[in-house]
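Key result, reporting period 2: structure in, sequence out.
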């Protein structure tokens, strides 16, 4: 994602995207943040066309109210057999998306929507910002499917961000990984970049001919469908999380 910095004069008072974005206070010794991921399918049925939702939350271990460091990268590991049908999905040039937003892209390039919550530092205050997230397919990168995750927030900052993601192969028990690069999200002069606190994105859909339709595997491994994610932060620390979507019919 690229981002535009707003001068202090525009920000008399402050309340992702991206998906959508918030700032981390300086710390004497970097302590790793923690992350929780929450994947889900709807409908949740073996072999069904579905929408797949992925959400995560990042917490700073320093204590209540502390802001985690700015997020720079994420790798999401997807279960083996999870199919993403990109046939007939149009592409949108990242330059067009960056300059004119998702409305300038072909309708069939849209893969999903979501929401992000960020933290922005204004002096001693950490103030939340909500951002709308849009995922759009872009031209392949080195022969691998690629997408862009566009985030737009209005309050307290007018910010837009553009993260790039590439779909790659993976090792068992996973079948593919989505590698996401997240740029710095500037806020106020002399203040840290924004930090992502939470993020959610829903891809695909159950309706016929939905762009980027996702198919649940026909068989479910013991214990459910495995997901994992690794997060990299601006201070050089990282976090990892795992989760399973229960097999249909199991709690």
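The corresponding designed sequence is given below.
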């Amino acid at each position: 994602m690229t981002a535009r910095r707003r001068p202090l004069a525009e920000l008399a008072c402050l309340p992702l995207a991206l998906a959508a974005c918030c700032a981390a206070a300086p710390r004497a010794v970097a302590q790793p943040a923690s992350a929780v991921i929450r994947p889900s399918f709807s409908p949740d049925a073996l072999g069904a066309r579905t929408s797949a939702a992925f959400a995560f939350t990042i917490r700073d271990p320093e204590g209540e109210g502390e802001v985690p460091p700015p997020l720079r990268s994420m790798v999401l590991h997807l279960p083996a057999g999870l199919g993403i049908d990109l046939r007939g999905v149009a592409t949108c040039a990242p330059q067009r998306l960056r300059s004119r937003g998702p409305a300038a892209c072909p309708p069939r390039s849209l893969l999903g929507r979501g929401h992000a919550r960020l933290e922005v530092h204004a002096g001693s205050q950490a103030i939340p910002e909500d951002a709308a997230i849009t995922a759009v397919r872009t031209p392949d990168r080195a022969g691998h499917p690629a997408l862009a995750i566009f985030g737009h927030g209005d309050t307290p900052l007018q910010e837009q961000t553009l993260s790039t993601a590439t779909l790659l192969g993976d090792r068992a028990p996973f079948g593919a990984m989505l590698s996401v690069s997240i740029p710095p999200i500037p806020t106020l002069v002399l203040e840290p970049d924004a930090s992502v606190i939470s993020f959610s994105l829903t891809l695909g859909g159950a309706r016929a001919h939905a762009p980027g339709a996702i198919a649940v595997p026909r068989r479910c491994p013991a214990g459910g469908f495995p997901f994992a994610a690794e997060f990299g932060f601006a201070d050089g620390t990282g976090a990892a999380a795992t989760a399973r979507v229960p097999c249909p019919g199991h709690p």
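The first helix runs from residue 94 to 100. The longest strand covers residues 125-141. This case is discussed further under Risks and Mitigation.
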